[in-house]
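To whoever picks this up:

The nightly regression suite flagged D-amino acid dehydrogenase 1 as changed. Nothing in the input moved, so I suspect the structure step. Input below, exactly as stored in the fixture:
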Amino acid sequence: MKTVVLGGGIAGVTAAYYLAREGREVTVIDRQPGVALETSFANAGLVAPGHSYTWASPRAPKILLKSLFVEGQALRLKLNADPHMWAWCFQFLRNCTAERSRENTTRKVRLCRYAQSQLQQLTAAEHLQYDRLSRGLLYLYRDEASFARGTQNMSILADNGLPLKTLDAAQVAAREPALAHACDKIAGAIYCPTDESGDAHLFTRALKAVCERLGVRFEFDTSISAIEASGDRIVGVRTPVGLVPGDEFVLALGSWSPILARRLGYRLPVYPVKGYSATFPVGPEHRPPDLGGVDENNLVAWARFGQRLRFTATAEFAGYDTRHTPADFRQMLQAARELFPDGADYSRASYWAGLRPMTPEGTPLIGRTRHRNLYLNTGHGHMGWTMSCGTAKLLADIMAGRQPELDMTGMTLK
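Regenerated output under the current build:
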């Protein structure tokens, strides 16, 4: 059985791994010269079931509207003429009710918990190294009002099995000494001891080596211009070197998945949401944090990868534009210096921007399509690193004709 995976990011490579373990002959095609060089390259690095809240919440419309007039918002909407963006935004707004927000968050946290267990099993089985830290994550709040909201909202995650703890400022400092000087800027935090962090790019590169030992072939520097069908079957994908045939095809191209699928008559509800990251070197003179986490009021995440410290921020609805300017990182750097003034060498930044493939609900699209041999593994949004091993395992079960180990409601093509 020849299986062709479209996309060499973390979703594509994890899919290739689980499918190769089934005995399939797998080929991965990607336009980049290596794996995980786009969305998976410099993301937040948090494996965070404790941050599984859907973005479509009752508060989101007001925040997006405010972003049209006030700079520095964590959620930003940039108006453009793309009809696909407007269609996506309409669906997003439909999910911003309290009922749908709770339903979508419940599905996300269940998927994230399952996916984390798959990641842990894979990491142990294949002895992967990717600057992993398994000491929990902190979700900080700057004022009492936001801390009270966060504490109230955490019940939906706790009801689904997450062990969450509330900490006051002194307890935060005891848990993470690098934050001791910032106690006057912190009202409290929610601590999830089972959350983790690690470099998704390093993980994907390490898993690629395992995939190659399993016989997976990688075709890099190969763009895909079309998926060609005959009746209800896909016959191949069109590349500069010709048609690549196969028995089964997996669409795992992140934000670019709906563009190729559109030509087959699909309207995948996936749209790019831009995020920014800055990574700094850590030397012996610095005091970096040992725990990753999120500054909830500014939606700035941080994670340490060995001798590197990364901050990520912003959810910008701006189409497929990955350009960035120094101004895009100003709020992020201000929060970084407030929380960890001696955390890293802030004069030596590596800046990056990438596109999260978001669905309006925040849950990915996995499994079958109208074409009998075309499958989806896309739309992971801001939780792609957390979800990747779980969605790949679910996909492999579906393709093998097995009952998935998780309820797939809300995660399949309607």
